[in-house]
C-alpha cells in the first residue's frame, strides 16, 4: 500500500481523466473513483495549480491540462517502448537464431519499430519503419486478436479492406474473426508464408496498464527450419510477458 495516499489518488485521477473521451464533473470523478467529494475537489485544485488539469467553468467540468500533455510528449521523446524491448529482442535473437521484431498497429498495418537479425540470416522484407498488412502478419494478428470486436469491424468492414500478397491468409471479415478468436485462445499468432513465401512467424502481444495490446514481439524463421511454431511461440510469449511487466501493464482480460 502506498505511504503517500494523496499522491496515489492524484495519479488515479489523472489516469481516469486520460481514459475518458472528454471533460468530467468533479462529482462524477468522486463517484467513479470512490472519493469523498471534498477530497476530489482538493485534488483537482492542487492538480490545476500545477497545470495538470483545467476547470471549464461554463460546463462545470474538469479536463486534462497542458502539463499532462507535456508529460506524455516527454514520454514519447524517450522512446520507452523501443528501449524496454530492445534487450529482450536481442536475447531472443541470440538464443533462438530467429529474426526478432517489435511491431505496433498503425491503422490496418503492422508498423515495425525494431528488428534484431542473427548473422547470415536470409534477407527479410521487414525492417524498421516498414509497414505490412496487419491481417497477414503474426504481429498484426496478435494485436488485432485483443482489440474490441467493434474496433476490428471498423478496421475491416468488408472484403475490400483485405490485401493479398501470396494467396494465403484471411480474405474476408468472417474469416478474420475466426482466425483472431482461435489465436486469442491459444495466446499467440502464427503466420506461414502469408507475407513472404518460405518464411514463418509467431508473435505474442504485450499489454499496457489498461490491458490493451501495446505491441507485439515476433520471431521469424525459414519455413524449412526444423523448429515447431509452438516452441518459438513459447519464447515469444515469455518475452511479451516480460515487456508487459516492464511497461507496468496487465495481461488481457477474459
From TrEMBL:
IclR-ED domain mapped to chain residues: 67-249
InterPro entries for this protein: GAF-like_dom_sf, HTH_MetabolicPath_Reg, Tscrpt_reg_IclR_C, Tscrpt_reg_IclR_N, WH-like_DNA-bd_sf, WH_DNA-bd_sf
Descriptive protein name: IclR family transcriptional regulator
The keyword Transcription is annotated on this UniProt entry: yes
Pfam families per the UniProt record, alphabetical: HTH_IclR (PF09339), IclR_C (PF01614)
PROSITE patterns, A to Z: HTH_ICLR (PS51077), ICLR_ED (PS51078)
Organism from which the protein derives: Nocardiopsis endophytica
Domain HTH iclR-type: 4-66
This protein's UniProt keywords: DNA-binding, Transcription, Transcription regulation
Keyword Transcription in record: yes
PANTHER family: HELIX-TURN-HELIX TRANSCRIPTIONAL REGULATOR, ICLR FAMILY, HTH-TYPE TRANSCRIPTIONAL REPRESSOR ALLR
